[in-house]
Amino acid sequence: MAQSGSLLDALGQSILDSASSIDAHIDAGALVDRISGDCSTASGHRARQFALAEFKALAKRAPGAVVATEGAVVAILRVVEKISPPQDEELADENVESMQDALECLSSLMSTGSSKSSASKDSKIEEKERADEQQGQLVAELIVKHTENVKQLLRLLCLSETSTQYDAMILLQKIYVRLPEPVNAAILADPRSLGHLMHVLQTSPIDYVRNECLSLLLLLTAANADIQTIVTVQGFIETVFSILEDEDLALGGKVARDLLQCLMNIVGNSTCQKYLRETDGAASLVSAISVAVAGRPSEEDDEEDERPEIPGESRWACLSLLVDAALSLASPPDAAEAEAEANRLALVKAGALDLCRHLSDPQLAEAAQLMLVRLFQSLEKCPQAADRLQSFGRGKQDSGRPLLFDLAAVLLGPVTRLSLRNALGRVLCRCVARHASLQSFLCSSLSPELQADSPEVRPAGRLLVDVLEAACLSGGGGSASVEVSWFALSLLL
């Protein structure tokens, strides 16, 4: 009995859905006639505006019926063409609402779809998703065909009217994920649209507009080398780091992650690497890594008690992207060694190695420690790395100690995590073995007369002597002692 009721319910719902679809199809046909009518008079203009608002609501409720209605999508695109202003002119005030409704209507016809597949998905759901994707592809093709290969939409980015810019950016993203090549070609044919996107990103006071602009740039810079180069010379790297100054990198928020993913998109480009070297890009990158590790002083001091607990994956998401960007510079897969060496030198001069001083912080998470060791590993072959490891700094952070002393203290410390000791030990031993000047400095620090300015950190050589003497006195007992002694001997040998 229950099964019979369920069958009747399903049948009834199917009839209702069919009736609703037929009604939507009829409504769409009537609306096509209304928006295609004469708009030369004030009453005609208002009628079209009301029809577009109804069309937008219908597109959200029944997009399939709208797409299936002959000429519906093309009619909306003709409205966009008619009310779009000539190049270098602004959109007329009376057309702003109509343009917004038309663009939102087109966006509603292209579902974002679902990229995740699941074995437990109902077959009807999968069939609907496939139909939605085919529908979105069809709409995207129609838009490209009837907007001069999206050149009309790109011109809308040049307007100062915010809502039009915003809706155009959303629509362009939905087109791009389906048909990237026409969008790329249109942008390269007239790069001014990129300039206007950069202007919005740099100056927009409205967060949701700036964020949508960032999402579009994230797509555009993903693979096209020419677009990567254009946005770089237009100040994209500087803009990324400028916006990051207002973001809490410890939270791993979407805006910060999108900015850093955009940075990752372009740092693999050799032209962009050269630009970054010749500007303050390396210094900005190092500064951002430091903030991602330790936070800004004001944040740590004033808001530490108020900040909610952040999951580890989110806490270090920004640091992971920043370190990956630095690694792309230090060890680019396709770059000549001379260019890679120039990148490493820029990072070392910017203070990238000094980030390893954070390894002495016992509160720093293991994941963050190992990221910093990876950064050290990518830079240790640089000749200037040896100079930086042995120099007596005068900055507040280094307190006048050579970096080598701090790293040796972490490596041979009694409470250092085994994973950190193993990772740091391999890199530091390789670095000392590679650079003769560093070997000489380490040997000179064996002398009892050489003392560090800070009593907490002994000279690296004296620390080696202490460890080996303790190992001899204890007879080599204890696994931790053996591990520490092995690395101490490796540094000496």
From TrEMBL:
<dbReference type="InterPro" id="IPR016024">
    <property type="entry name" value="ARM-type_fold"/>
</dbReference>
<dbReference type="InterPro" id="IPR024095">
    <property type="entry name" value="Vesicle_P115"/>
</dbReference>
<feature type="compositionally biased region" description="Basic and acidic residues">
    <location>
        <begin position="119"/>
        <end position="132"/>
    </location>
</feature>
<dbReference type="GO" id="GO:0048193">
    <property type="term" value="P:Golgi vesicle transport"/>
</dbReference>
<dbReference type="InterPro" id="IPR011989">
    <property type="entry name" value="ARM-like"/>
</dbReference>
<feature type="region of interest" description="Disordered">
    <location>
        <begin position="110"/>
        <end position="132"/>
    </location>
</feature>
<protein>
    <submittedName>
        <fullName>GC6 protein</fullName>
    </submittedName>
</protein>
